[in-house]
Amino acid sequence: MFYKLSVFTFLIFIGIGFVYWDHVKQPPMAQSVADNVDYRDNNAMVPNIAFRSIDGDLYDLYDFKGKIVLLNFWATWCAPCIAEFPELLKLSKNEKDNLVLIAISVDEKIENIKPFLKRHNLNTNLDNVIIAHDDGKKISHDIFQTSTYPETFILTPNLTIAKKVNGFIEWNNNVELLKLLKNN
Questions:
Q1: What is the pLDDT at residue 13?
Q2: Is 177 in contact with 171 (CB distance < 8 Å)?
Q3: Could you report the per-residue pLDDT of 50-79, keeping only the tens digit for each?
Q4: For 136-176, what is each residue's pLDDT tens digit?
Q5: What is residue 121's predicted lDDT score, i.e. its pLDDT?
């Protein structure tokens, strides 16, 4: 009886150990990218990522070298994202010659995105606006290590990080950010 109880206790501790290890380990992609890129460093070069727009077009982030890129991570269920989206579209329209907005949704289902845009009357038919879906959060979480939404990375024309913005801001009334966009 004592032998069976000892084996049972040992197996319980092994199981708890595996659950703890699985809970605290970083995803493999996040770990390898995090070793190379510190997203708190405003001069970090971002990796080239491939992504597909909600219309099915395939892009590489490096396709936009030479332009300022707003890499925005958002969700249709996120109230601050909903408030910020019109601001980002207005900024994109005003800065259409030197800025590209890549808005990557972290929604679980891509089917939620188009009805959301239509319901909120958001015109994304701008040449410099790309709406994409991050299936499984492979880009947002694993590569860019986002945790709250919206999160926006302002990338220089050389695709280094100029600034990371957490949360909602009024893009068109923020003098500091508008100056940053003009100087890059």
A1: 58
A2: yes
A3: 999 999 999 999 999 999 999 999 999 999
A4: 999 999 999 998 999 999 999 999 999 999 999 999 888 88
A5: 84
What confidence tens digit (pLDDT) does each residue in 111-142 have? 999 999 998 888 888 899 999 999 999 999 99
CB 105 within 8 A of CB 76: yes
The structure tokens 């972290």 sit at 106
83 within 8 A of 65, measured Cβ to Cβ: no
The answer to whether the predicted template modeling score (pTM) of the entire model surpasses 0.70 is yes
161 phi/psi in degrees, rounded to 5: -80, 120
Phi-psi region of 133 (alpha: psi -120 to 50; beta: other; left: phi over 0): beta
